[in-house]
Specification:
The structure is a single chain. The protein has helices spanning 12-21, 32-37, 49-58, 61-69, 79-82, 188-200; strands spanning 2-5, 26-29, 40-43, 73-77, 87-88, 102-106, 115-123, 140-146, 148-152, 158-163, 167-174, 177-180. It has a single domain, classed as Class I glutamine amidotransferase (GATase) domain (Rossmann fold, 3-Layer(aba) Sandwich). The chain has six helices and twelve strands. By secondary structure, it is an alpha/beta fold.
Amino acid sequence: MIAIFDYGIGNIHSVRKALEKLGARTVLTCKEDELSAADKIVLPGVGAFDDAMECLERGGAALLKKQAACGKIILGICLGMQVLFCESEEASSHKGLGVLDGRVLKFRGGLKVPHMGWNRIKLGVSGRDCPLLRGIDDGEYVYFCHSYYASPREVPVSAGLTEYGTDFTSVAWKDNVYAVQFHPEKSQGAGLRILRNFIALN
């Protein structure tokens, strides 16, 4: 069973629909017992960092950190990726979950934001070993919509990179925690393969 964490922010229903299309059993929940009993947790998200963390801190932040520490497989998507890190330049009042070490930065240099549309994934240091990217070609296109990006402190965490003014981390991976800046549920064949890989993780 895959629990999709319903914390009031996110592209929840499109993620759930994509997972169920691939044969996964899902539950949309914010209940501690259901999140604890699930095999995996998906943390989706669109919107602002402060808003997301405010919702999580009302119920779920401590549980998510506990589940990650216990080895539960977690996938953060878009804003759900960013809140897994320690802090964000977007935030004025909230820290991140700190499940992954690093900061979330704003695109600079006069780049148009949000970075929206199709762009390529280049395999990073750990990309060829990352189970989430099994069968994904170097240079595969996926769909983005974001104005900030995660900068992991540890280079091997960057399993996938995308160029937009700078090479930013578009896929993060450390142990049982995975995260993608793009929207796999909107990324057609490549995105469905990534979600299929996620379903198969154990």
